[in-house]
Fold:
Amino acid sequence: MLQFSFWDILSNLLIATQWTIILSLIAFVCGGIVGLVLLFMRVSGIKPLEWFTKGYIEFFQGTPLLMQLFLFFFGIALFGIEVSPWMAATLALTFWTSAFLTEIWRGCVESIAKGQWEASTSLAMTYIEQMRYVILPQASRIAVAPTVGFSVQVIKGTALASIIGFVELTKAGTMLNNATFKPFLVYSLVALIYFCLCYPLSWGAKKLEGRLNVAR
Amino acid sequence: MGEVKKDQRKRGKTNMTYKLQFAELLPYWDVLLQGLIFTIVLTLVSTFTGIAVGTAGASLRTFGPAWAGAIVTAYVELIRNTPFIVQLFFIFFGLPAAGVMLSETTAAFLAMTINLGAYSTEIIRAGIQAVPKGHIEAGVSLAMTKWEVLRHIILNQAFRKIYPALSSQIIIVMLGSAVVSQVSAQDLTYAANFVASRNFRNFEVYLLAALAYLILAMLARSLLRGLGRILFKAAN
Structure:
């Protein structure tokens, strides 16, 4: 029988950690792009667009991420498209991330004084111009800390992709556990690696939050 | 290999006109209902224990000795920076190796309590810090004991302040509980998996389960809001 030393376990876990990081980055960047589009719709003042985004956010915030993964995994297959765990995980995590980011950013946009909107309207700026040159530059300063804080949730969210068969850190942990029968060691290491990924981000978010309060 | 691919593509084409078959879920309504009830009960029970842990943790961290505060901080940071599923796997698969055997339901309950406990420690601590120092001094000068001050002055005001944040955390934990199906605790997701394995109507059953979670989350939100109005009506 093949024997696994401590270093074998650790190096295998670290290889799988790459995929956790890649999936997190893709979900975060794509989720951010979709979230920005949704944000423009959400605060546009056009009722049907607002209703759509409200419903979208309600659905993705009100259902378990695991269910969303299942729905994407089995839902896309209904259209006759072969679904890889990669695709389902990326799509589900992207949409899930975008819903939360839109809601976070909406709070930041709404905290901008109404006078800013009125002033820019009186300068005959279009909606896009207002957002681009007046609102977003101010809102983004407030948004940095909670956005960094949410990135921790995205990394933790990728752990669920293991359930639909995406081999990342958690799945690698399960596989190694099945091979080595050392669950205590394996899951301790898995938790430790997640901690090393997430803690700097949590810490950074907290520091940014503090700095912003001083600036105000 | 090529044959299989072609076959799949052909089948795919016909699937474009796939009709959802919700009627096939009907024979399994009792399984799904049992799962739903399990999810509700699990959430309810671990909400109480989780908040109890959180209250103790927050009090210890603010008023306890430095070493206790350090332990609480380590606990909170460790839980908040690792995924719930890994915590669950550690408890269910890891602890038996250390000699602690747990049933899947106990493991699920324990994991949820520990998870909510960490988040609510952080939330309640923020509430405690927002209580003006003068109030505590006033309580002490009225000859209230340490416990009375904690119970009637500090926690009372803290909970009023952080109630909305705590409510949304409870809902997040409820949605997170879908993961306990992975250690075969028989919640709604487990029931959905079971039905899907029986009739292969994966999408339909997961859609139904997702909607059930959505309704549950919305209901919980309005119930918690109503409860908050009743609990914190006086002197607000």
About this structure: The longest helix of chain A spans residues 6-42. The two ends of chain A are 63 Å apart (CA to CA). The mean pLDDT of chain A is 92.
